[in-house]
Amino acid sequence: MTQTDISYKKSGTDAIIAALMALVVFGPIMGIVLNGYQFKLSFDRVFVIVAIVFVGRFLMSTFFQTHRGKMMAFRYTNNNDGVTVLPPNHKSQMVWIIPLVMVIGLLVPFIASKYVLTIVILGLIYVLLGLGLNIVVGLAGLLDLGFVGFYAIGAYGLALGYNHLGLGFWSMLPIAAILAACAGAILGFPVLRMHGDYLAIVTLGFGEIIRLVLTNWQSFTHGPNGITAPAPTLFGLEFKRRSAHGETFHEFFNVPYDSAHKYMFVYLVLFVVVWAVLFIKHRLVKMPIGRAWEALREDEIACRSLGLNHVLVKLSAFMMGAAIAGIAGVFFATYQGFINPTSFTFFESALILAIVVLGGMGSTVGVVIAAFCLTVLPELLREVAQYRILLFGILMVVMMIWKPRGLVRVTRRGFARKEGVVK
Amino acid sequence: MSNATLRKTLLSIAVAGAATLAQADVNIGVAGPFTGANAAFGKQLWEGAKKAAADINAAGGIDGEKINLIKADDACEPKQALSVANRLVDSDDVVAVVGHFCSSSSIPASNVYADAGVLMVNPASTSPILTDRGLPNVFRVCGRDDQQGDVAASYIVDTLKAKRVAIINDKTTYGKGLADAMKKTLNGYGVKEVMYEGLTRGEKDFNALVTKIRSVNADLVYFGGLHSEAGPLVRQLRDQGSKAIFMSGDGIVSDEFVTVAGGAKYVNGVYMTFGANPTSYPAGKAVVKEFRDSGYEPEGYTLYAYTAMQVVAESLAKTNLDPVEAATWLHSHSVNTVMGKKTFDKKGDLTVSDYVMYKWDDKGKYHQLD
Amino acid sequence: MDIVLQQLVNGLTLGSVYGLIAIGYTMVYGIIGMINFAHGDVYMVSAYLTAIAIALLTFFGVQSFPFILIGTLIFTIIVTGAYGWVIERVAYRPLRNSSRLSVLISAIGMSLILQNYVQLSQGPNQQGVPTLLSGAIRFHVGDGFVQITYMKILILLIAFAGMGVLTYIIQKTKLGRMCRATQQDRKMASILGIDTDKVISSVFVIGSSMAALAGVLVTLDYGSFDFYIGFIMGIKAFTAAVLGGIGSLPGAMLGGIILGLSESLFAGLISSDYKDVFSFSLLVLILIIRPSGLLGKPAVEKV
């Protein structure tokens, strides 16, 4: 390793092979554009992309022959260590960060524009979803591709409860959570016998079934036409310009009507709920049930031999996750004011899963960061309108290759006997 | 000072100094699906709106101010529609929006525009819900599903004299709305449909459905949906030896319908409802020619978007660029557009439905029936 | 009676297409244990390639259907195979030692990339191919009839021929033996001198080729496609693969045909609105009774 020989011949061959492959792959699709039953040629862009591939591959190949490149490749193939365990008496240097985030979070609605506020609300909804799925996938190790189903149950719970039973935001918030948890239990029972990827497809099927029923059960859900959802109320005060029953928020406080008030209120409630969920999750992980989830993920057989009731443990994870998704759904419906089944497609499940994996499986902070990244990113990319989703996809792949274990590693405090405890 | 008053003040300053100062542009949003499965329609809206804005700007703009178009992609997802609507209103300070395409996007977005007092002129969403909620700022230059259903149903009953009608929809807000309207009017005429079912958007195999249509002996198939599904459907119908008449709405108005159906022989004899031919108006003819000269075929909703932009420009010009007043103005005045004179009713719908029947011929072209 | 028979024909052709695409899922899953979500989009790419090949061939004056079919098949299978190879090389190989979920996310990203890349290159329009082979056989049954187009018969023939060739490759050739060895124990196989990376690459190429076969047949039959068709087809084919027992080749074909038949029969006899609900419920039901699918090997639990 003392001397680095760079063989430009090797780089050259690599680059030529890559360029030829690029020509085969990009040539027909980019070079020959269908136009009815005829075609038009546009080979200029093929040459551009082939040239980019050639140069890129050449530089990459050369770089990995240098000393630094080799070091990088070596580190890359060996970065598969798992959880970082901190020393028992570890004191975090970041204690100030939680109050800081709280204060900033509370200030957001009063300084941000309505557009920014709506994005932040959406981000928080995805934080909730990510946290919910994190329990199922990250902690309990159950791959769930139909998580959007519970989200839909929450959202439609609010809309349908309002339209059919006259229930409002506040009463539906706990009911939706319970409903979603029950759905989780119903799905959970048959599913628990199955292994990893069979579970994935069954849950995927479950998510699709929910969406299809919502689409097709016209008389109940209004099908693809969608259904309106109520705005939240503050002690009975509505956030509307005019109200059919009673006073509205702006009349009561005698302020001019501003549609941003509704979003501010939704944001503040959501903010509190997210903190509550964060706190509950933080505690649960340290409780026996949380330990059981993780233990079951690591080795199911060992757990069963030790007398853990694996059905109960898995089911509780499923139901917890589902309940959180249900709550997220209620917020989504009230934020949007109108929902229809197109918001609950498989792509949504994939996005939530991407949040969990990208954030680092089981890591709470990672999920929060990833949720914001994945909701804010598409909005930032609006500038490049048509390349938006393409770049989003590329980033997903690149991020996974760059950090396959997610942005934030899971850390855990080590255990030691406390001083002064009777041995 | 709220945004609206601030804008008004700034505008009056701008108008006062109009003779000498450089102009502040007027921002108008064009919202639609520029990515995703409906991107083809988004392109139609954009091309139409772009051309209209260019033409208006070339003629001196609105009150001397140039139109600055802002493209907003909603991918036909309600979630994204809401967020682009807020963005248009908040960050881009638009006074008016031409869009959206899908009814399911237009409906939630219209609430945002109503709250912000932004004028919304919709070129393509035909769902009755859009205007039935009585928002003061919402207009559309296309028809409503129920109007379309009326025209088609009376044609089925009076002219085609079909007795056994199968109604198929694609389970989208648009397709379902159209199919429901058809069902309702048809039942009003005393004809009960023999079949009412949905197919899944994005699939291409409808053989099972086609066999079922055959089994109920339908003599007419009415499809509420877009050409992407109508093409394979009509082809598979013919491949299985069914001779039922095929009829659909304005969702199949695209030359691609012929391409996806597998050739002109499959679309021969297909009926559809669509707005009266815009080339029959002198102004429309010129615009269509200009489009074609520039190498773009103005199909489907292109001219609707053009018309919508003209309505926006005209109403803003008449009211000093105040969108709220422009909405009030539109309720009581009519606008001359490339698609003829447009007058709006209380809800913001066109007073005159301009839907007529069209029929596709064996060369893959559609013609207006008298 | 004629209607039921017609639905059986519909289901069988649809099912054989599902089966061909399911092979890609099942082989990849068998060998590296990942769900290749981009596979449906590889099928979509092959539909575009089919149309391009047909447009090129007719441009150069090839008129006879057999030549067009063979030319299109060769072109599409080669280029789609290249796609399979490149996707594996770029998006999955760097993640060989990472958790399966990372690969899954990478695959979802890849699926988005393919869809949007094709949309940007070819435009968002609906595309189609001209009808090259028309005509049908009609059987009279009772007072009704069953009509089968020549294209449908061709689909069945080619699909089963493709399956036969694949079975031969896997069972009898050296490559097939290496594939099976790698599937059983990748580490052991590499110790015994098998270049497992190459084997995995070739599995991707084979899977993509089968998807290309399906792409050519479906495109010729339905005549239309867009950049979005891969998604639904992918989910259906994946369901078929799981139904038959993921990892098992005959299982993929069987699962495809069961799925196709159940969809057609349910849509035709009961309701086309709920046909997908029915297929997914059927899947759940089968998995409850047989947790490893119809022909899958039960997972052995170490104790």
Protein topology:
The complex is a heterotrimer of chains A (423), B (370) and C (303).
Chain A: H1 8-31, E1 32-35, E2 38-41, H2 43-63, H3 67-77, E3 84-86, H4 97-111, H5 114-139, H6 148-165, H7 169-191, H8 196-216, H9 218-221, E4 227-228, E5 233-234, E6 237-238, H10 249-252, H11 260-286, H12 288-298, H13 300-305, H14 310-336, E7 338-339, H15 346-359, H16 364-380, H17 388-402, E8 411-413
Parallel strand pairs in A: 3-8
Antiparallel strand pairs in A: 1-2, 4-7, 5-6
Helix pairs in contact in A: 1-2, 4-11, 5-11, 5-14, 5-15, 5-16, 6-7, 6-8, 6-14, 7-14, 11-12, 11-14, 12-14, 15-16
Chain B: H1 3-16, E1 26-32, H2 39-58, E2 67-73, H3 78-90, E3 96-98, H4 103-116, E4 119-122, H5 129-132, E5 138-140, H6 145-160, E6 165-169, H7 173-188, E7 195-198, H8 207-215, E8 220-224, H9 227-239, E9 245-248, H10 256-261, H11 264-267, E10 271-275, H12 282-293, H13 302-318, H14 323-332, E11 334-337, E12 340-343, E13 355-360, E14 366-368
Parallel strand pairs in B: 1-2, 1-3, 3-4, 4-5, 6-7, 6-8, 8-9, 9-10
Antiparallel strand pairs in B: 10-13, 11-12, 13-14
Helix pairs in contact in B: 2-13, 3-4, 6-7, 13-14
Chain C: H1 2-32, H2 39-59, H3 65-92, H4 100-122, E1 127-128, E2 136-141, E3 144-149, H5 150-172, H6 174-184, H7 186-191, H8 196-222, E4 224-225, H9 229-244, H10 249-269, H11 275-289
Helix pairs in contact in C: 1-5, 1-8, 1-9, 1-10, 2-3, 2-4, 2-8, 2-9, 3-8, 5-6, 5-8, 6-8, 9-10, 10-11
Commentary on this structure:
The complex is a heterotrimer of chains A (423), B (370) and C (303). With 423 residues, chain A is mainly alpha-helical. Chain A has helices spanning 8-31, 43-63, 67-77, 97-111, 114-139, 148-165, 169-191, 196-216, 218-221, 249-252, 260-286, 288-298, 300-305, 310-336, 346-359, 364-380, 388-402; strands at residues 32-35, 38-41, 84-86, 227-228, 233-234, 237-238, 338-339, 411-413. Helix content of chain A is 67%, strand content 5%. In chain A, the strands form 4 sheets. Chain A has a two-stranded antiparallel ribbon with strand order 1-2. A two-stranded parallel sheet of chain A has the order 3-8. Chain B folds into 2 domains: 3-142 and 301-338, Rossmann fold (3-Layer(aba) Sandwich); 146-276 and 355-368, Response regulator (Rossmann fold, 3-Layer(aba) Sandwich). Chain C is mainly alpha-helical and 303 residues long. Chain C is 73% helix and 5% strand. In chain C, a hairpin with a 2-residue loop joins strand 2 (136-141) and strand 3. In chain C, helix 9 (229-244) crosses helix 10. The radius of gyration of chain C is 19 Å and the shape is globular. The mean pLDDT of chain C is 88. The chains are: A mainly alpha (423), B alpha/beta (370), C mainly alpha (303). At the A-C interface, helix 1, strand 1, helix 8, helix 15 and helix 17 of A face helix 2, helix 3, helix 4, strand 1 and helix 9 of C.
